[in-house]
Each structure stands twice: as C-alpha cells, then as structure tokens.
Amino acid sequence: MTLEEDLRVTLHDRAAAARPPADDLLTEVTLGVRRDVRRRRLVAGGAAVAVVAAALAVPLLRHDDDRPRPLPAASPPLADDWDRGPWTPSPFFSLRPTWVPADLGTGPEVLQLGYNEVLQYEKDGDVLSAETGPQEPGWGAETTGEHTADVGGQTAIVRTADDYDGAGPGDRFIAVRWKVPPSDLWVQVTSFGGHTEAEVLRFARGLDGGTGSVAGTSPAPFTFSVWPPRMTTQHQSPTQVCLVGQEQQLQRQPEGLCVLVTEEPFAPGTDGERLTLAGRDAELHLDAGSLTVDLGAGRLLSVTWDPETIPLSRNDVLRFAGGITYHG
Amino acid sequence: MHSGFEDYVRARGDALRRFAYLICGDRHLGEDLVQEVLVKAYRRWPRIEADQPDRYIRTALVRSHVSWLRLRSNGERPGAVPDEPASGDFAEGQALRDELWTRLGGLTRAQRAVMVLRYYEDLDDRQIGDVLRCSPSTVRVHAARALARLRADLTTATIEGAKP
Fold first, then answer.
1. CB–CB of B103/B78 below 8 Å?
2. Burial class of residue B85 in the structure, from the number of CB atoms within 10 Å of its CB (0-12 exposed, 13-18 middle, 19+ buried)
C-alpha cells in the first residue's frame, strides 16, 4: 500500500476503535451551556466598560471586510533587531562534478535541504542529482534491487528500480549512496530516467571534494529587504525559500517561514482578510499562517509559517512580504 | 435547551468525538474540544441548524484546535501499542499503522488537520482550504510537507528498528 492508503486505513481504524468515554456528552454539554449562560450574565454587568474599550479597539481590529486595503503609507516601525537586506539567498554545493553525461548539458540547479546540499541536472524528464551533507538522504523511490560498488575506495550501496512514479518506457531509478571519511558526510547520487548504472557510477566517482564548487549557479528567485531576526535558510530551491531560527535543528523537508511561487490563479476564499500589498491583491489568514499574493499571469506568491513556532504579527507579515522581490 | 440541539448531540456526538480525536491525537483533549465547540454552537443553534450543522461543527473543531491561541497542555501521546499481539502480514501492517499514528503527532496542527480532512473526511483541497481559512495552494503545501515528513520519519524508524 502507498503511504496515502496507509494513512486512510490508519485514520479510519483509529476512529473506529476510539471508544466514547463513559461520560454522557449531552449531559456534559448541557452543564457547559448552563455555566456559559451564567458567565455571560455576569459579564453583562460590566458591559459599559467593555463597550468603551471595544470602541477604542475598532480602528485596529476592523479589517475583515471585503474591501481591498492598501498597506498604510507609513507602516509601524519594525522592531530594531530585524535584519535588513537586500539579500538573495544562494545555495552552495561543495563537490565539483568532473564528468556529467553529455545529454544533460550545463546549468544545474543547486538546492539546500536542511543541512544537506543538492546539485541537480534535469532535461527532458531525466534527472541526475548529487546530495551531500550530515543528514542521510532518502532513497526517493521503492527499490527492487540492491548491491554494492566501489566509489573512491568507499563501499557504496547501489539501489535500483525498473519502475517509479512518472517513469516512461526504458526509464530506471538508480541511486548510489556512500559516506566520505573522515567527515562521515553522506553522499548520494540519484538518477531518474534513461541513464545507465555505469554512467551514474562514473558521475559519482567524478565528484571531487575540495577543488572547487558550483556555488551560485542558481540563486533563489527572491530578494528579501527585511526578515525576522536570528533566522537562517532551511530550504532553498528554484521556487521556494524557507527560514527558521538559527538555534533550530534543520529538517530535510521545507519548514518554518517559507516563500513559494506556484502556477495557479488567485482564488481568495470568503473569510480571509483581503488586502492590497505593493499594489497586488492578497489574502491573509493570520491564525492559519498563510498570506497569498496574486502575481498575475496565473502565478501566486505564498508566504506560510507555523504560528505556533513563529508567532508573527500582522505588521510583521506584511512588512516581510512587502519587502520580497520576485525575479521569476 | 433547544430540542433540535439535543437531538443533534445524541445523533452525532460519537462521530464528532472520533473526528476530534483524530484531529488532536488525544482522547481527553478531543473530548474537551467537542464540548467547548458545542457549548459555543448552542448560542447560535437556530442559525446553525438551518444550514449544515455537521459542516459548521467540523470547521469549528478544526479552527479551534489549529488556532495558535489555543495553547493547551497535551499530556497523552498517541501511538499506544495494540492490546492483542498479532502475527504475520497483519502484524506488520498493524505495526506500520501504529508507527504512522505516532508520527502524525510530529506534524504541525495545520498539517495534521489537512491529513485528517483529506484522508478521513475525503475533502478536496478547496473544501479543506475553506475549513482552514487558507488557499488550496497552501493546503497542498501543508499536505506535501506532511507527507514528506511522514515518509522521512517512517524511513528513519525502519532503519532504527533494523539496527541490532
């Protein structure tokens, strides 16, 4: 079964096995309703004070109507400790490939996945990538074959599969994984497509540490002018950048304060806050950690964050997003 | 007490408790959540009843739980081992599902809600976005990150389990 099928079964099994507590729900809710009625009657006694406070609060809180609202000309100042740019994150790959299959050409993309660095060639559906870092990479496909090979004097595990999601006729999955002493960093070369195991191993054996790099070949498509303090990049790819606190352990999966561009039309819901950000329509869901900006031409810029770990205020989010320049 | 409200709680109470349990991963927290949401719903019951009460209550449960303001202690951790020992393929499948349930506890609340709404309630991304008050693209981001996290966690758990 796939992970999605397992999830479906797991959730239905758990729901079916959940025994309702002995307490009668209706009795508990009835008691709760009575407590709620009593509490509201008590609160009503202080209504005069509450009305005054609410009237003062209206200009700040009333922003949930449907009218687009431009950013105020003079936004509240940022806290002094916010970092300022311009800053365009540029991921770095620290191994230099000395041989690449000719059909893949030049112009690889460099990505950051947590602590790991990735160099990726892609052409006509074929993908050849190299990943290195302290975190063990994932295999990326259900494999059916496994054997070992020598890569630079190290024993490498080679895993293969004759089929994978999206495979065409003749396509194979081949991955080679080994560790580099004395740092014990992982290296994995992965191929999806028509390349042979001999080609994949030749590419793997040609990765040359310490004699150069291809850093800066694919800077992020975003430039930031301001961002929250003490944050570092957690994920970088051609369409997405994520930032997390400098003290946080980095996962390989994107997380934190993320900026992402997708190709889909702007379709705001009914209960988000509609606003205008740098002249563009946008929709903010502060408590869900989501800001979507219409870039036009069927593209969206999404800013997402986990409000539990990154509690940004409305002004924080708008200043951060308003300072993003997209180069796509 | 509105008779329609009583009928609704009697008829749908257990289903709401199961849904809240999946959203929270904790029976007691789920029970508190259902009671709190139903008490608040009672205030507006005539309007809710006239529309789609299941949809309203389900949305309120998710939003109340996901809201970052709702910071409550969560003592129980999900992932208890099965009561009865099992064997063969069934045991392997059960072990995987136990592990999967445990790993759901490592997701953010929004990611977990997306998993439950998509794979338990069978809602599409637009419907999930309406519940979570975000765009379908944000739902897809939550889903992709949740699935990637679960895949990585399960792989790590398998490797750890295979060590002597």
1. no
2. exposed
A18 closest CB neighbour out of B17, B66, B100: B17
Provide the whole-model pTM. 0.56
Report how many domains make up chain B.
Answer: 2
pLDDT, tens digit (0-9, with 9 covering 90-100), for A15-73: 888 776 656 888 888 887 777 666 655 444 333 332 322 222 222 222 333 333 333 33
Say which range, A72-81, A95-104, B73-82, has the weakest mean pLDDT: B73-82
Which chain B residue is nearest to residue A28, measuring alpha carbons? Answer: B35
CATH fold for the domain made of A95-209: Jelly Rolls (2.60.120)
Find out whether the peptide bond into A101 is cis, omega within 30 degrees of 0: no
- Best mutation target among A5, A23, A24, A25 (most B Cβ atoms within 10 Å) is A25
B141 and A3 in contact by Cβ < 8 A?
A: no
* C-alpha atoms less than 13 angstroms from C-alpha of A96 in its C-beta half-sphere: 9
A267 near B CB under 8 A: yes
- Checking A13-18 for CB contacts under 8 A at 24+ apart, the result is A13/B97, A14/B21, A14/B22, A14/B101, A15/B18, A15/B19, A15/B21, A15/B22, A15/B120, A16/B18, A18/B17, A18/B18, A18/B21, A18/B27
CB contact under 8 A, B22 and A11: yes
- Using an 8 Å CB-CB cutoff, list chain A residues near B77: none
Is residue B18 in a domain? yes
Domain-embedded: residue B101 = yes
Min Cα distance B12 → chain A (Å) is 10
Q: What is the C-alpha separation between A239 and A232, in angstroms, rounded?
A: 17
Single-letter residue type at A15 = A
The fold adopted by the segment(s) A83-87+219-326 is Protein Transport Mog1p; Chain A (3.40.1000)
- Cβ neighbours for A220, distance < 8 A, ≥ 6 positions apart: A88, A89, A90, A91, A236, A241
Residues B25 and B61 occupy one common structural domain: yes
Q: Which residues of chain B have pLDDT under 70?
A: 1, 67-91, 157-164
For residue B50, the tally of other CB atoms under 10 A from its CB is 9
